Write the structure tokens for this entry.
Amino acid sequence: MKTFYLAILWASIACTLGARATSSTLFDTSFENPPYATGNLNGQQSWSAGSPYSVVTGGISYDSGSVDVPGGTQNLSIDMPAAAQGASAHHVFATQTDDFYFSFAVQWDWAVAPANGRTVWVYMGDDSNTAGTLGVVFNPLSGTVFTRIRSASNSNSNGTGITDFTDGQIYFIVGKVSKADASTNYNRIEIMVNPTSTEEPISWSYSASFDSEVSLLTTFGIVTTNNTTSATDGVFGLDSLRIATDYSNLFPVPEPNTAALLLLGTTAGLLLRKKGSRN
């Protein structure tokens, strides 16, 4: 009988943990093999991407406080000297009309801080175009990482962000896009940079507020800006990308089998101990 109950407990734990990991997740990738192979990103796992975008060996890991994001063994890489103005990559996720969250790790290795004003813009939009988007801009020249909203009519509003963006440093970005003040359109993006807790912040560190003029979001995108390239522009890497309707799903959870084994083993031990005490 004990064996039967333990089997039921095992199944319940595995199902519960599995549901938590996937029920609110819209998109989740660390560019690992499988299913990603090293080489050009275009066409892999439904990505559309220009030639500067590729999957390369080497993960981007972030670990601070209670936040532990293992980068694995591969990441998405942009060869910046080869990336012309508007070189982009994008991936579709389930259409969203309510608030949702996103996270990703980045690292930009440059030989010399690009004096040409090159930037990388990571965004969520209603299609592959950068009009009608909410996102984060990385600018080595000014040493900044900041929020940006671009309306469907191509008006920009830059928000707040960090001012110490550094060569080779790993940054873990956690954010939220929303329809603030009962708006029918998305009009607010908020981010934390290098968080130390997996608890959703009561007050976000940086934000931008502006009418994007779009009421639904369907696409994650990356685009390079400024058509003046240089051999010293370096390599921009992105890893551990997650988009979810539940904040807790932005962070890795234990594998269901591992967590279930731990709890199951503890429960079994308690049962056996109880049986032994009766004997």
